[in-house]
Design goal:
With 88 residues, the protein is of the alpha+beta class. 18% of the residues lie in helices and 24% in strands. The radius of gyration is 12 Å and the shape is globular.
């Protein structure tokens, strides 16, 4: 986290939300407070891809899975995808 910056706007530092942790962070979110983009951590790997390379269906499934632990701001306003159109 000490060296990561948002790949879109280069903002530093980023916020880390850990959902599952063993020896390493297994699942979580890395978020940019400046542009509201979020990046999933899946299987211990941060997926910090540009918007056009992200899979909307998979990203929304990830947010639904962690709905109870993810910050409301990411759930409702996160970019490039969020759950604002879904009932809470």
């Amino acid at each position: 986290m000490d060296i990561l910056a948002c790949p879109i706007d280069k903002h530093y530092p980023l916020e880390l939300y850990v959902f599952e942790e063993k020896e390493e962070i297994v699942e979580g979110i890395i978020a940019c407070p400046k542009c509201s983009r979020w990046y999933p951590i899946k299987g211990e790997i941060p997926e910090m891809l540009p918007d056009e390379l992200r899979n909307k269906r998979e990203e929304l499934e990830f947010l639904r899975k962690w709905r109870e632990k993810a910050p409301k701001k990411i759930l409702l306003e996160g970019k490039p995808f969020n759950l604002s159109d879904e009932p809470t």
